[in-house]
Amino acid sequence: MRNGTASERAPNEQGQDRRCRMSERVRKGASAMAQRLRRWLVAERGQSMVEYAIVTALIAIVAMGAVQALGGGVSHVFNNIVNAISGI
Fold first, then answer.
1. Per-residue confidence at 59, pLDDT binned at 50, 70, 90?
2. Is pTM, for the whole model, over 0.90?
3. CA torsion angle for 36, 40, 45, 51 (degrees, to 10)?
4. Domain residue spans in the chain?
5. What's the CA angle centered on 15, arms 12 and 19, to 5 degrees?
6. Which of 3, 9, 48, 77 is the most exposed place for a label (fewest CB within 10 A)?
7. Cα 70 from chain centroid?
């Protein structure tokens, strides 16, 4: 009775057929998900976003370092300007 219609098959065979179809769907879904993940990892767009983020972070670090290094000198220059203006 393996070749009979679904209504002629034993309940156990129907369950096995259903499980086979479900496992095939799961395999196809997993394969499609893996393909999407591969495309996402290889995409140029994602890489360029990461590169922009790294460059932005480096610029922020350099700017903070420059402000800390030059902060005292800039303050001194502005104080000299204020004193010169006050003396006029």
1. very high
2. no
3. 180
4. 1-42, 44-88
5. 140
6. 3
7. 36
